[in-house]
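In response to reviewer comment 3 from the previous cycle, which asked for concrete evidence that the modeling workflow produces usable outputs, we include below a single protein chain processed end to end. The sequence was submitted unchanged, and the resulting structure tokens are shown without manual editing.
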Amino acid sequence: MLERTGGAAALAGFFFQLDVSVWAALDLEAAAARLTPGQLRGRLPSIAALMSAVVGERASEAHVMECARAVADLPDRRMLLVPLMIGAFAERRHLAEAIGKFLPSDRVDLLFAALDGGLRLKRSAFEDLGEVRIVDEVVYLFSGLFDPPDGE
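The workflow returned the following structure tokens.
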């Protein structure tokens, strides 16, 4: 798990707010359409996780599925399917379900239960879906869905 304490936590919070401010200033539909599967495959984990959520929420269904297929084929980045699903879930649940077909069904069921407000996920529930940095960034970005780290 990435350590985020003291100054590191404050800096991470600052950069997250900066990211949110930049996204808020953009036309999100247009921005999401410009985010390519190649960018999701190649960007730093923190950026790729945020970009995946924006694509899931704002891009066309065809573009979302193109991105989902691209990351589903990458064992180290399959975890990016989770923010794609989270982005789509509230307004386009059918799209979240379609993305979920690229994941083990037990994980999809867990994620949907958490998104429906029924449970909090274990931090280790998705650890086999990619490189540890990708998994950690998605868990960090959506920390409200997950149990707190040990010791908190």
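Confidence is low (pLDDT under 50) at residues 1-7. We consider this sufficient to address the reviewer's concern, and the full set will be provided in the supplementary archive.
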